[in-house]
Design goal:
binds NADP nicotinamide-adenine-dinucleotide phosphate; 7-stranded parallel β-sheet; 12 strands; Rossmann fold; 3-stranded mixed β-sheet; about 45% helix; 11 helices; globular; single chain; alpha/beta
């Protein structure tokens, strides 16, 4: 299958950008990547992608990557410092959106998160994402914002040795989403104009609290769920000067406070509902639970 549209993916080597780039290619788009390290991008993604070397901070590289494309998908990641969240989630998004508007790009799509709103802007990350969304909307370029729930792909990131850390009192049910399902939805969004100028909530098919999801994942990965309080993680982070842990404590406090709101109905109607269950996703990675 081919079509004549070219989509630029910014962040295409990332955990959540790579599946989008791959799905766009499968769906027949010409896919261009803006990559700081083209060799790494080529190795990760394989052949069939047009790779432009560059950094989002380099206006000339950005304009060159955006020239002649029909759309651009942004999948950048900021943090752990406040300045870096602002840099990636706000300023880079603003710059890409403004350049896209000037160059007549047809649409900008971006991965945001479900807990992004005025009310929930209580962390550097959520504030920066909110400012990035606002900059995109006010740029005048057609857009689609994907406000996704927690990705199943993040579960392995909580594993340390033989345990998976459950940080804080995470009581909210979350619709865990597989990156493959999300990528299919992003690619589909480029195949209709009905998705333009919308915020779409991307929620997986089942809801589990973080503890429940970790328990399922732990059975496959052969690890044990190890609860740790947010205060303890913050103290450990401060004592060891570990900015990742300090940032994680702030992040998990945010998710302790805010559960999902927003409805996935419109996204599911326009793009097809995600179907991958957490057990199916685990099965693909591990074949079967370690304890079965
Ligand atoms: N975790 C979740 O459940 C969840 C849910 C909703 C939304 N999100 C959001 O999804 C976004 C993407 O996350 P991720 O895990 O896919 O991030 P990631 O794996 O760290 O990928 C980030 C990408 O950005 C690229 N990049 C970074 N700085 C750049 C620069 N200056 N110029 C050009 N490219 C640059 C990286 O390229 P290099 O290869 O050069 O490093 C990489 O391709 C984040 O904003 C996150 O908040 C996550």
């Amino acid at each position: 299958m081919t079509n004549n549209k070219t989509i630029l993916v910014v962040g295409g080597t990332g955990m959540l950008g790579k599946p989008v780039a791959q799905q766009l290619k499968v769906d027949g788009f010409n896919v261009r990547l803006l990559a700081r390290n083209p060799e790494k991008a080529q190795k990760l993604l394989g052949d069939g992608f047009e790779i432009i070397k560059g950094d989002v901070d380099d206006p000339a590289a950005l304009r060159s990557a955006l020239t002649g494309v029909d759309g651009v998908h942004i999948s950048l990641k900021g943090g752990p410092t406040e300045a870096d969240f602002d840099h990636m989630d706000h300023i880079a998004t603003r710059d890409i959106a403004q350049a896209a508007k000037e160059l007549g790009v047809g649409r900008v799509t971006i991965l945001s998160a479900y807990a992004v709103s005025e009310e929930k802007a209580d962390t550097p990350e959520s504030r920066s994402k909110l400012k990035g969304e606002a900059a995109l909307k006010s740029s005048g370029v057609p857009y689609t914002i994907f406000r996704a729930s927690w990705f199943m792909e993040t579960l392995p990131m909580f594993v340390q040795g033989k345990s998976i850390s459950l940080i804080g009192n995470q009581i909210h049910p979350l619709h865990w989403i597989a990156a493959e399902d999300y990528a299919r939805m992003v690619s589909k969004s480029y195949q209709t104009d009905e998705t333009l100028n919308k915020e779409l909530y991307i929620f997986g098919p089942e809801a589990f609290t973080m503890g429940e999801a970790m328990k399922i994942y732990a059975e496959y990965a052969g690890v044990k769920v190890a609860p740790i309080s947010i205060q303890m993680l913050a103290v450990l982070g401060a004592l060891t000067f570990n900015t990742e842990w300090k940032g994680m404590a702030v992040l998990m406090k945010h998710y302790e406070n805010w559960g999902e709101d927003g409805s996935p109905d419109e996204a599911n109607h326009l793009l097809g509902a995600p179907a991958t269950t957490l057990k199916e996703w685990c099965n693909k990675r591990y074949s079967q639970p370690v304890n079965s």
